[in-house]
Specification:
There is one protein chain. By secondary structure, the chain is an all-alpha fold. It has one domain. It has 13 helices and no strands. Helix 4 packs antiparallel against helix 12.
Length: 302
């Protein structure tokens, strides 16, 4: 029976906590700048901090990589940093942080078909059923959103569709990133991912939102600082360590902790209303991810 990586376990839990905290910090930081500029500024600032210390090993990673690996690195950066973060910031303009964290926790469910198609991993019937029931849990959680008027209004909300597309991009990017983390040092790799993703998102912010307008109030500045140092550097570092210690599907299981932290943080810091229907949907989602994870664990220990 393979031993569970204790360091990987701690890294996964810390990642979930830091990442959930980012949803709250974004809410505080949104008055600072338009959402795409805020997301781009977060990545650019974090990459500059890391490159100030790790520029040489980061350049070595890029120099030593094959052309195909460089394209993988760029694609992973665009998907996991540029698109996913841009979608998250956009969604948080109109959606509660707790609901966005619930949507983000659907990553493990999406990872099953993604890993099957791209990594050749097989899903058992139990995993397939758990995936379908888990998706139903997401639908229930969305329907529990305060102010939602029926199924169509809830599911076809533009912000929800954008957020779900971001989760799809993150799942795809993680499968690309998995093949890179075993060949590169963690921190320099984080720096290259943020620099590449930040540059692409910066261009997109300029084209969509025009020139930036920053309002450096204390609360917004504090939220931005959290996003740079904890939500970007620390969380991405912990995520890459987790990917290094676990399989792509196994690592994605830590996303089940995100709605738990998200609901608690949203209630504590933003006084968000959490409806019983949202709690029910989250419970179903977490239960199905747990069932799926146990199924994978049993298969790998045979």
């Amino acid at each position: 029976m393979p031993a569970i990586s204790f360091n990987g376990l701690i890294a996964g839990v810390l990642f979930a906590a830091f990442w959930s905290g980012s949803f709250i910090a974004i809410k505080f930081a949104l008055p600072l700048a338009p959402p795409l500029w805020l997301a781009a500024g977060r990545l650019v600032a974090a990459s500059l901090v890391l490159l100030a210390v790790f520029a040489r090993p980061a350049m070595r990673i890029i120099r030593d990589a094959s052309p195909r690996m460089r394209w993988r690195m760029l694609a992973a950066a665009v998907l996991t940093q540029s698109y996913y973060l841009g979608a998250t910031f956009h969604a948080l303009v109109t959606l509660p942080a707790a609901l966005v964290s619930i949507l983000g926790s659907s990553l493990p469910l999406i990872s099953i078909p993604m890993a099957t198609a791209m990594l050749g991993e097989k899903a058992s019937p139990r995993e397939v059923v758990a995936t379908l029931v888990g998706i139903a849990g997401i639908v229930v959680a969305i329907l529990g959103k305060p102010g939602a008027d029926g199924l169509t209004d809830a599911l076809l909300s533009p912000s929800i569709l954008v957020m779900l597309s971001g989760v799809l991009a993150l799942a795809f990017g993680n499968t690309l990133l998995k093949s890179i983390v075993s060949k590169s040092d963690v921190v320099p790799l984080v720096a290259t991912q943020m620099a590449g993703g930040g540059f692409v998102l910066l261009l997109f912010a300029i084209s969509v939102e025009g020139p930036p307008h920053f309002d450096w109030k204390f609360t917004a500045s504090f939220g931005f600082a959290y996003l740079v140092f904890m939500g970007s550097i620390a969380a991405t570092w912990m995520w890459i360590v987790t990917l290094h210690r676990f399989s792509a599907i196994g690592a994605s299981g830590f996303f089940l902790l995100i709605p738990v932290f998200g609901i608690v943080f949203g209630r504590l810091f933003l006084d968000e209303v959490v409806t019983p229907l949202q709690l029910l949907g989250t419970a179903v989602l977490c239960a199905m991810i747990l069932v799926r994870s146990l199924s994978i664990s049993k298969r790998e220990t045979r």
